[in-house]
Design a protein that fits this description.
Number of strands: 7
Order of helices and strands: EHEHEHEHEHEHHHE
Largest sheet: 7 strands, parallel
Distance between the termini: 28 Å
CATH architecture: 3-Layer(aba) Sandwich
Helix content: 40-55%
Bound molecules: NADP nicotinamide-adenine-dinucleotide phosphate
Shape: globular
Oligomer: single chain
Length: 263
């Protein structure tokens, strides 16, 4: 269900990372429906092509750019931004949804685990944002949404590396928001609880196994609404934060968790 008009983001160019994943793909679709030109990126070429085909089939008029990139690689980020600008013009909106789960309980956490997670969830996200931001500063406008997590606001079992990377992203969001608004650029974060994507399903499954309960019983016990969020629900929140309707929302960490934070 979209509550946004088809020209809400007309004239904007949104770059969506993690578009081959559940939340990123849903976000790219809603932004296209709102009239934005959209650049989609991920590492998986087939998934990226499938998403592009789906969007173009439904919206033949959509201005769409696709470019594979491993965001940890400097040359890939450069190529991504060059292709995006050449195809759809200056980037005015950025959604940082690329991310990975992983890690271990702190007694088993390795340096390699820590570095791997921080490299993608924090460092690469910051580097991509920096590059896009420089151009936004010249335009004197823009909006950025970082996809953090409830784990970026509170710790959960076996999640030290992931939580640290998502806390770091929140810290980055807050601090950058203060600087960026002086240039007319808004920066916010969303903090989803469990979302019904591959990553969310694996996480719920792991917790159910550890607690010896069924997935259904776990969801019932830990989420007041009794269910995971749909990727579209996260996408709609991101989309709202990118519009002018959210023009005085700056440096926020918006929780979407079916009330998980209340338990
Ligand atoms: N699902 C949840 O329950 C949940 C909850 C809270 C927060 N989040 C956050 O939401 C974001 C999206 O998660 P999701 O549920 O949509 O997960 P997902 O379906 O697993 O998607 C993850 C995305 O990140 C991309 N990615 C991974 N490594 C990359 C790399 N090195 N370079 C470029 N892209 C890379 C993947 O692309 P390829 O597959 O093409 O490599 C994929 O598009 C993540 O930041 C996650 O931490 C998810």
């Amino acid at each position: 269900m979209s509550i946004f008009s088809s020209d809400a983001l007309k004239g904007e160019h949104a770059l969506v990372s993690g578009a081959t994943g559940g939340i990123g793909a849903a976000t790219a679709k809603v932004l296209v429906e709102m009239g934005a030109a959209v650049t989609i990126t991920g590492r998986n070429k087939e998934k990226l092509q499938k998403l592009a085909d789906e969007i173009q089939h439904k919206h033949p008029e959509a201005k769409l750019c696709k470019q594979t990139a491993d965001l940890r690689v400097d040359a890939d980020r450069e190529k991504l931004l060059k292709t995006a600008e050449q195809t759809c013009g200056s980037i005015t909106l950025l959604v940082n949804s690329a991310g990975a789960a992983g890690g271990n309980t702190v007694d088993k956490l390795t340096r390699e685990d820590m570095e791997k997670i921080m490299d993608l969830n924090y460092t690469s996200t910051v580097l991509l944002t920096q590059q896009v931001y420089q151009k936004m500063v010249q335009l004197k406008r823009g909006a950025i949404v970082n996809v953090s997590s409830l784990s970026g606001l509170r710790g959960t079992y076996g999640n030290t590396a992931y939580a640290a990377s998502k806390f770091a992203l929140i810290g980055f969001t807050h601090a950058m928001a203060v600087e960026a608004i002086a240039h007319g650029i808004r920066v916010n974060a969303v903090c989803p609880g469990w979302v019904d994507t591959k990553m969310g399903q694996q996480s719920v499954q792991r917790k159910a196994e550890r607690s010896g309960s069924s997935v259904e019983a776990l969801l019932e016990a830990s989420i007041p609404s009794g269910r995971m969020s749909e990727p579209e629900e996260i996408a709609n929140t991101i989309a709202f934060l990118l519009t002018d309707a959210a023009r005085n929302i700056i440096g926020e960490s918006v929780k979407i968790s079916g009330g998980t934070v209340l338990r």
